[in-house]
Amino acid sequence: MTREHLTPSCPPHAVDNAALVVTELVTNAVRHADTEMLLVLDVASGHIDVRVQDESPELPRPRDLDPDALSGRGLALVEALSTAWGVEERAGTKVVWATIPLERDATKHEEGRNGANDGEALNER
Taking the C-alpha atoms of 109, 110, 114 and 118 in order, what is their torsion angle to the nearest 10 degrees? Predict the structure, then answer.
């Protein structure tokens, strides 16, 4: 579904990156929220917006894992493939979002900030 939606308007590497980010965010919603969810993909000027909404109040957080662990690397992948990602808390729901660049090397920026602003967690690189 992700590839079908994005392939007509996005370069192949961006489609691959977005497909992996969608897989990770949807998997997290299924495994940890166990509620109904909504996936939104939007192609904007220079990037792809990925948004996954669920009804769990539990916020995602990256974990430090043993190198031999079989799972738990999803948010690290999201961070590596996006220029920014975060969480918006809304009444009874949350939206985990990521911005995927259309340019091949756009994710290779210097380290940015991690913080919160008006109930919104933000991770930028």
Answer: -60
